Protein 1
Amino acid sequence: MAIEQFEQWVRQSFAYLFTDYGFEVVSRAVKPGKPGQSLQLVLQAADGLILAYDDDGEANLLLGPRSAPLEGVFRNTGQWFYIRSVIDFFERSSIEELVQRSLGATRTFTPHDEQLADLGARFQPYCAQALTLFRAENFPGAREELTAYEEAHRAAFRVAWERARKK
């Protein structure tokens, strides 16, 4: 897939980021990946950064403060959070809901544009709140909350995942 196609899907699925929150695409990159290539867009606004990427069949977004480093993004620097985690944080999704959603996702392939459309629709109701968390003055406390939420859910998720897979 071409980076232009990916950008078009991001702009369609997250149009509100550009029209309502002032995000702009500030960089585009095509990087070698496994098995093919990784497409990356960096979106920037006054309240934060978003890294949209498509890698190995997964389209996803990461949210971070304006100060988040763009190098080593995927090495858990404590600066970037997956959009799904942020949505789950606001929805207060139960472990069972997360496991069932994950099991369903692993059984079927969802086209990239549909993955982005789903994320865009799910994130929109929480966008203003999320961007507030990622403002420089709010981020230290928000990082603690988001990290604690992720850690608690990660441990419980592993147990629930193994139980669900054995059924």
Protein 2
Amino acid sequence: MIRRIDAADPDTGLIGMIAEWSRESIDDVSQSPKRLVIAIAAATAALEVFIHLIAPAINVPLNPVSILTVINATLFGGAPGQYMLISSVEHWVLALVIFPVLYVVTARRICPGPAAFRGIVFGTILGLTALFVIVPSRDFGIGSGTLLIGSMYAHVGYGVILAVILGQPLDEAIADTEGQAPA
């Protein structure tokens, strides 16, 4: 169903629509908190295994905490080493909180198709954002093609695992069982 958006109206305006959409998404996921925890843990564990074991084995320079330490030092001044702890916390908060919330509120609701496809789209957006927005904006440069490949593998793998375990949104699941398309 297509709704007319009146930006001036707080009930039907863009902000009101986003707030309603976010509430619906969170309510949907809260139906199965155990699945959410398992999805986040599995996706994050796979990401960490890739970063620390697989990427070095295939000679891919992938160290998000080091990049975050340099970004923090650039933003706030000082030596990158003094930001190691906060950069580690930032990395974990992104993987355990921010990315799952972004997936649930956006890609899980917007992207058509099966969960794996939604995860691929979400992971691709994360990987490209990391490479083409965050890294170059802090004068790191894009580096080699291996950094691009490693970042894409890591983020797409994270997105697919998160999406497949979470499954499809509740309204689509109900529509599928009733044999009709979701509204």
Protein 3
Amino acid sequence: MLPRLLPIICVCTLFASFALISPTTAEQKTSGSCVQGLDPIRPGETASAVHDFRCFDTFAEVIAYLSDGQVYVADSIEPHELTEDIVDQIALASDRTVIGVQWELPGYVTDRPNGFDNFTRYTFQSDACNGYSYGRPSMESGWNNVIQSAQGSSGCNTFEHWDGTNWSGDRIFCASSCPDMGTVNDRTPQGGGLCSLLHRGGAAPWAG
């Protein structure tokens, strides 16, 4: 609940238990540990096409889904424990490249008992942000005005956020990580909204 408003043969570590997912249940959820698949922004356009969106009860289920069940982690893993090694294993297992994670609390915190959630973006573009950008002019339903920290991955070292839709309102220019969104934290602008952009290097010239 939201209370306020991005095949391998073996892996280095195998835990005794791992997550099993139910795609049907995941597709029906709109909160929890969510994933969204994005295409790179095409020339002449300002937003990525979305080819996947679903939510799970735990982040371990997210990793199981992204890796087609081939990367095993502890059931208790949290998004801040996602390493580039795990990201690389996911990419080898399924061709999905994790490009960024957003949290509903500052400091990359997930408070599951109180319903504070996380949002992972991925792409099938293996070069990630090397020559490509990814962005959405608004958040998915139920996710407006709740993102308070974010972290890029796979070389996506700029994770910009705006407190309005369509690249409007106050802007937070993050490097690869933002433990706090400052003035954008939990903001509820008139009309609601939040949008974000993942890329490498300086600001996107068409956004803000």
Protein 4
Amino acid sequence: MSENAKQNIRLNLDENGMIVLDPGQEIVVKGRGGWLNRLTGTPDGADLLHYNPADNGIKKFYEYSTHENPHGAGIVFQEPDLGIPLDTIGVSEEGKLIGMLVVNDSGDVVERFSITNAMLRLKKVVLVSSEGELSINGEFKGFLSLLFSPDKNRLSGYVGIFTPKKPEVVKVAEMENLIFSSFM
């Protein structure tokens, strides 16, 4: 930030001591671990964006935003910049692949990771072909067999389950499918 941009910000407080931002006015509060919180004034309050940018400006892990909800409730956008669009890996669902579980022939999970963790922390090259074939650092790991969404209304993104054999069709499941099937 330039010296000219550094300034004291005057915040308006309401009768309860709550900060009131003018529409379009923004403040950014730095949190621990590189997380940022951006408040943007709206005509009826403020929108919140909570995110963690990498050194190159990519948003990693997730961002939480209230921006597109008229009631102010937020949604977690997982892997906002690093997530793999599903239409590029042979799936007609809308959304992004945000994590992977690699399962062996016995059905045991042998690897589990988010894209941010694999790419930025572990420095792995993660590729999923248009046929749903996962490779990490050039090593075949499995085929996309199932996409799982923990909560379609509050969390964006899907975790991919990769198995040694290619399925005829990639199944899509949400938490409610698992809950209802366990009681039926």
